[in-house]
Amino acid sequence: MEFKYLKYEVSDGILLLTLNQPDVMNAVNAGACAELTAAFDYADNDDRVRVVIVTGAGRAFCAGANLSDSGNQESFHGRFTGQADAAARRDDGGVVCLRIYDMKKPVIAAINGPAVGFGVTLTLPMDVRIAVKGAKMGFVFARRGIILDGAATWFLPRLVGMGTAAEWVYSGRVFSAQEAYDKRLVSELLEPEELIPRAREIAAGIANNSSAISVALCRQLMWKMLGADHPMEAHILESRALNWIYGEKDVQEGVTSFLEKRPPEFSMKTSTDMPDFYPWWKERAFKP
To answer: CA-CA distance, 29 to 118, in Å (whole number)?
Structure first.
């Protein structure tokens, strides 16, 4: 698949998806957002891909929206000049983040440098965030007179708690990777040369040992249950999934390989073998 703003490279079950505009610190425009959504669509249906790693080219992960791009200004801000219906137009960053949220494949953020604005909200629906020690991050929206994008008002408090989220967002200050680690926004701090190898190590641990179907169902059960009203909702959905999966060949292979003391050879594919009740959350209609 050809992209203008991204690199899409698959090897050993791992997609390395690179934001590829280093001359503008990988700041995004509407075209880059559209490509990100398309890349995640493609990856979710690409059986070569078991895990996605997202990183940036050059010295930055992503500097947010490219506000110096006149076309980008029109796309992102046209609603304020009467060019779009403010009630109906959806945030481009939110479209990308919700696509990540619905992924069947785990997504790892390898934050190789500054990640501010959309550059950091982009990482929130990802499953694992690791960063280089010198990275800077910031939810700088209030300092631009705007608000959070990327559905971050839902994701961020769930990841770091309301108090930390509030202080970061209201002040709009840029903070260190060490602070992000201390507040559990990122799980590991690494030297630059260690970042991608470590991301690949995490990804390989998933791709080489786990059933793609099991991972897809567990990923969506955990993410979707963050908004559940009662643990009974999780119990009902888990029971539904367990009753289905016990009769499937990946379970048979998982048990047999364990008894035979050998690595499993799972064969089920997320492109064709998901249960008929998946995606269960689409039964509810959400309108902007």
So the answer is: 11
What CATH topology corresponds to 6-207?
2-enoyl-CoA Hydratase; Chain A, domain 1 (3.90.226)
Nearest 5°: the CA angle 131, 134, 138 is 75
Strand (E) or helix (H) holding 20: none
Strand-pair partners of 136: 176
Q: Which helix (H) or strand (E) holds 115?
A: strand 115-116
Burial per residue of 221-232, b for 16 or more beta-carbon CB atoms within 10 angstroms, e otherwise: eebbeeeeeeee
Q: What are phi and psi of 48, to 5 degrees?
A: -70, -25
According to DSSP, residue 65 is labeled B
Instruction: Give per-residue pLDDT as tens, 68-99.
Output: 765 555 454 444 444 555 556 889 999 999 99
CATH number of 212-283: 1.10.12.10
Q: In this structure, how many other beta carbons lie within 10 angstroms of the beta carbon of residue 16? A: 20
Annotated domain spans of the chain: 6-207, 212-283
The CA-based angle 7-12-16, given to 5 degrees, is 20
**Consecutive H or E run containing 88:** none
Same fold? 6-207, 212-283: no
Dihedral over alpha carbons 164, 151, 137, 27 (to 10 degrees):
-170
- Tens-place pLDDT, residues 27-40: 999 999 999 999 99
Q: Specify the pLDDT at position 78.
A: 45
Q: What is the DSSP string of 193-213?
A: HHHHHHHHHHHHHHHTTS-HH
User: What is the pLDDT, as a whole number, of residue 86?
Assistant: 54
Task: Give the mean pLDDT of 282-288.
Answer: 61
